[in-house]
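Practice set, problem 2.
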Amino acid sequence: MPHRRDIETRNGTRVAVHARRPDRSAEEAVVFVHGATFGARPAFDTPGYSWLADTASRGRAAYAVDAVGYGDSDRPAAMDDPDGDPPSRADRVATDLRRVLDALARDHDRLHLVGYSWGTMVAGVACTRSTEVASLVQFAPVYDPDPARVSAFDPGRDPAPKREATRTETRDRWDAHLPVPSDHRDPDAFDRFWTTLFDGQGVSDDPPTVEAPNGTLLDLTAAATGGPIYDAADIAVSTLVVRGSLDQTATREDGLRLYDDLTTGEAEYTEIANGSHFLALERRRDTLFDRVATFHDGQ
């Protein structure tokens, strides 16, 4: 059964960690970090599509962290200040993540870290500061995107501290990755995902709308204009870079740049055919889950 644990960071912020554990005691655990728009539960624990549940079924404890401003974690005051700086920058969230990892290390002998989308920036920053995790998976990474793609991330001059996305916009974004959405996604997948997302980040019923901090977009824009925000060569742990072949956000070129820069530790690169940026919620998710679990087995 899923449960939640709250961890207090050094500055007193409460960070929510969503967990699923195997029936027996687990020596190893996998810690997941979500992307720029959707918090931990919709990304990793949507009912019927739960990567956390799959991980626990294989004998490892599974945890997904809500960054500040997402889901059940504390809401930064800046999100309600029109003149506030956009919160939830990767560097700050990586500091919170280190606090979470330290707490979980008391319960498990080995921790594996999985970043997703913008969460790969958080995970990358965290791993350049420490090698206490046993391995790193960078799933659907945005690392050193082509400058021509800045318009896809840029929140503009004097960016607002937060942004909103409607149900229709969210579905359209997912559909745009897929040649024929019904060929790649189960009929109930989007509705289950949206219900889980709205439960944690919903702000309006008419139209159905969620919100997210804009600090994440500043990180993505910084990478597109100035290069990676972390040095992959400083990551010493074994790392798997994995993406879906249809992913238009985490491109093949960018994924290979990350793979090529992982020159210190062992590195692997995998593409999963017919999967998009939302692969973990699509029909080929079991292939993703199997590949990551196999990688963990080898560490």
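Problem 2, part (b): a different protein.
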Amino acid sequence: MLCHLEQHGLVDYAAALELQRERVAQRKAGTISDTLILLEHPHVYTLGRNAQKENMLVSEEFLASRGAQVFHTDRGGDVTYHGPGQLVGYPILDLTRHRRDISWYMRSLEEVFIRTAQDYGIEAGRSAGAAGVWVGNDKLTAMGVHLSRWVTSHGFALNVDTDLRYFEWIVPCGLQGKGVTSLAKLLGHPVKMEGATERVVEHFGAVFGLEVEAIEESIKLKN
């Protein structure tokens, strides 16, 4: 099966939400193939449907003073951070053409990043009761998804060379006593986004049995 790959660079979160809505509607209508959107966001904190207020350790006004936006979303999960140096992916997949099983979908997404970490010589895995991919007690890849008529949206965030200090103002994913890490921190040197992206795309195609084909797309940033 074919999967279109859209790479958009640095995109405001609101613009990315609108792009997802458009692609979900198109996928439901059958006018596009499965699609993987890859991008980065300016500093932003997003709260999922299950977000708890106490997991925001500072006010929204404080975050705004640090140049970060705050958004409430319809994805699963609690609060997380997105920013430069983090590869964010929004798969728009019709699971009726794969497997109607949200647990299978989440485990498959996790497998993509377990394999990606292995490419860098990092042993990563799952943590019982906590979605995402972990290295020891630290989360490397966060995940939160939404399904509508079995079409997926939202997705994953891989910390490639992220400024991890921005996680200090939240309880990431609402998990007390857990940390956050990145490929760069684990390896002890900078990691190029381009190389990490290539590995993620390769493993995404392999895990989901998709032929990933890049297409030329662009969107206008909304400030």
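Answer key, part (b): Confidence is low (pLDDT under 50) at residues 218-223. DSSP finds five helices and twelve strands in the chain.
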